[in-house]
């Protein structure tokens, strides 16, 4: 497919809009509220913001006292967020500012927060090398348990279908918990990719996960050891040849399409690629976002993809484009690869 060479070409080839009043500093997470087009964005500017992407309107926000590293929006009356000081907050958008509560805190930054609707609990992973479980049904959001991992938590993902919580840490290890019995990890394994983990997301069927690294590579892994041995693989992506030099870009984000099971990757090259993991095919790509892709999310019916174009400081401090969130209307090019009929 031809590259998009200008903003005019981009507008002609892709249906998208830009969010009103985007964060003023790095966008750390994007998540849609299920069964809606309400998009949650957390940021280094200390805010957690909500957008209605159907009407392209800015809805509400609340703030932390420092940079927000992650947030989730599991229900219309529940939002959770974690900040760089380790504090975890809850917020009810249907009530407003008076509903802000501190759920609890880690000793260092709360890098990832995930809500388990069936269990009514919140999982948080931190740079203090713990994963903690909070009972959100109790009035005081009681901490249920704390589980040590070997190094700082960099990314977490939850497969509700199989109750598997996947934790990627700074030592390139992956710890997998069965959330029905978290006293002992279900598995501990070394990442199949030898460089630092940036993002982990689970397959929509709950059978495994995709792992992205700083070295322009994606690993596809499975929970069942027998399947893992037979089917795991890794592939290169987000690479380019510039002035006759091969350049490798970190992959910051993975987002699985909730219907088709295909997925998007976003990297520091400013590109988003769509992949069919089962058939090992690249499906489609976009180019010329203003800067790095920091995070992405599909809405629950897979008709929208939110993309944060937000510099991630892979080249240190420098002038860079303003942070922006793009909302793309998803087309059929994200469908799995269909083999030609014989």
TrEMBL record:
It comes from the Eukaryota. The keyword Protein biosynthesis does not apply. Keywords: Repeat, WD repeat. WD repeats lie at residues 103-144, 251-285. InterPro entries: WD40/YVTN_repeat-like_dom_sf, WD40_PAC1, WD40_repeat_CS, WD40_repeat_dom_sf, WD40_rpt. SMART domains: WD40. PANTHER family: MRNA EXPORT FACTOR AND BUB3. This is WD40 repeat-containing protein. It comes from Cavenderia fasciculata. The gene is bub3.
